[in-house]
């Protein structure tokens, strides 16, 4: 079994080590001594780049150790680099993360962690994105990734073995897993959930001036501790549950197709 690990926090991010530990445990359980773990991750942080690819410019890639590479590109670039340059054989699974911060609700739309999983799915590979929600319950922990470390291996094993992947559809399934912002012993369980929406969490800008007087804009996010409708991914995370959300790279608003057909006919 070959597992590819990537992320959007960068090759030196602590969450990447957690993902690698999860991958090793899953691979050993499912394949024993035949397990191979490959890591191709961004050379520097790429949070918020979504499904971006470096279509108009090349990027450098460097081997840091056997089966471990850093690429000066996006998370989706890293998946492409692994598939078409680095790995001699295609992986059986792609794990993206563990992201430091949640990718619940609308955060999923901006996430480079999800972008890598989406690209892997479009390439015909099973892919799982793992993210650790941060909050009051994690700030004083020795490891903020407690919940991900404890619950990640079993969730990945179950999805690999039994999760629907719909490989025959035009847009195959990938999974978005978010661990709640609490210590591992306070996690209440695992729930499947649809993607939610924080209605007050818009991105915006904040202006600052350099000593030379030049104006710079910083991107600001909205509050992350506001729940949405009951049963949504972020609401369950804030209630102490791990959320598992099946996703597709299909942005069609299917519920409005018939309305538009009637409008334009």
Automatic annotation (TrEMBL):
Residues in coiled coil: none
Q: Where in the cell is it found?
A: Cytoplasm
Entry cofactors: a divalent metal cation
- In what residue span(s) does the Survival protein SurE-like phosphatase/nucleotidase domain sit? 3-199
Function in brief: Nucleotidase that shows phosphatase activity on nucleoside 5'-monophosphates.
Protein family according to the UniProt entry: Belongs to the SurE nucleotidase family.
Q: What is this protein called?
A: 5'-nucleotidase SurE
Q: Which organism is it from?
A: Aliiroseovarius pelagivivens
